[in-house]
């Protein structure tokens, strides 16, 4: 099993969610986060004063899927989250050793469905 973690622009969340539902992925965790990559924040003007915004609002999705679903998940996220502009985000893939559904005790792939 694999965990796919995607950091995307917040306004792309609904598009990504819909794209994942289309390929049969229904479970995900979503967190509102702040951070920056290469863009290093930006400058804004508020009541005539200029100030730096070092950390930009982002959305983090965490999805655990079987290994054979990873490529489809990555492609769905890339297609739905891309705006072609800097700051579109990143996708990370990592191994998951074990999954247990607390309510039933089901494990691994059975716990994902």
Structure description:
With 113 residues, this protein is α+β, with helices and mostly antiparallel strands. The chain has one domain: Alpha-Beta Plaits (2-Layer Sandwich). The chain has 3 helices and 6 strands; from the N terminus they run βαββββαβα. A hairpin with a 2-residue loop joins β3 (42-46) and β4 (49-53). α1 (13-22) runs antiparallel to α2 (70-81). The longest helix has 12 residues, at 70-81. The model has no long low-confidence stretch (mean pLDDT 90).
Count of the domains: 1
CATH topology: Alpha-Beta Plaits
CATH architecture: 2-Layer Sandwich
Sheet-strand content, in percent, reads 35-45%
> What would you report as the Rg, rounded to the nearest angstrom?
17 Å
Distance between the termini: 13 Å
> Which sheet architecture does the biggest sheet show?
4 strands, antiparallel
Assembly level? single chain
What overall form do the CA principal axes indicate?
elongated
Element-by-element helix/strand order: EHEEEEHEH
Q: Taking all residues together, what is the mean pLDDT?
A: 90
Question: What's the gist of this structure?
Answer:
It is built from 3 helices and 6 strands; from the N terminus they run βαββββαβα.
Topology:
Blueprint: E1 2-8, H1 13-22, E2 29-35, E3 42-46, E4 49-53, E5 56-65, H2 70-81, E6 89-95, H3 109-112
Antiparallel strand pairs: 1-5, 1-6, 2-5, 3-4
Helix pairs in contact: 1-2
């Amino acid at each position: 099993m694999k965990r796919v973690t995607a950091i995307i622009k917040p306004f792309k969340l609904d598009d990504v969610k819909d794209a994942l539902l289309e390929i049969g992925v229904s479970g995900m965790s979503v967190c509102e986060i702040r951070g920056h990559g290469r863009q290093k924040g930006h400058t804004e003007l508020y009541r005539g004063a200029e100030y730096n915004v070092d950390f930009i609002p982002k959305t983090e999705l965490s999805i655990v899927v079987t290994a054979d679903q990873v490529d489809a998940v990555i492609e769905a996220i890339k297609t739905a989250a891309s705006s072609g502009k800097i700051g579109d985000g990143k996708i990370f893939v990592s191994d998951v050793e074990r999954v247990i559904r607390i309510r039933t005790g089901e494990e691994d792939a059975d716990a994902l469905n």
